[in-house]
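Readers of this paper often ask what the protein records in our data store actually look like. This encoding replaces a full spatial description with a residue-level series of whole-number codes. For reference, a complete record is included directly beneath this paragraph.
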Amino acid sequence: MQVIATNDAGTRAALLEARRLARRLDRANVVLLVPRIASSIASVEAPDVDTAVVGRYQRIASLCGVDVIVRLCVCGTLREAFQWMLPRGCVVVVGGQRRWWWPTREQRIADLVKKTGHVIVFAEASELHTASQ
């Protein structure tokens, strides 16, 4: 199962949903994909920043009680990250706020992933939801 990192609250909601689904589907492997858009070679060559980012998401996963493999994907666009880093037809969990009148960044990410042929589960991130889990 794949989880796409968005913001802290969205990532927490997605990890909690992935934990629930993994238990239900009897799947142990959860991969947290952290896309990092790089506009130049200079922004790609920052290993200290990469280590801090991976550590941050490992701590979030640990607090959620989810054992994950964190994959940092340095890419030019989100479409590239999803095309190259997500296995074909996999279940992808995206978490974030949901709006009806104008899609949030997280909803646009979920739509983009769905267009690339993956099964999407959207985890609603609200203070009440993430605090109760």
User: Anything to note?
Assistant: The longest helix spans residues 8-25.
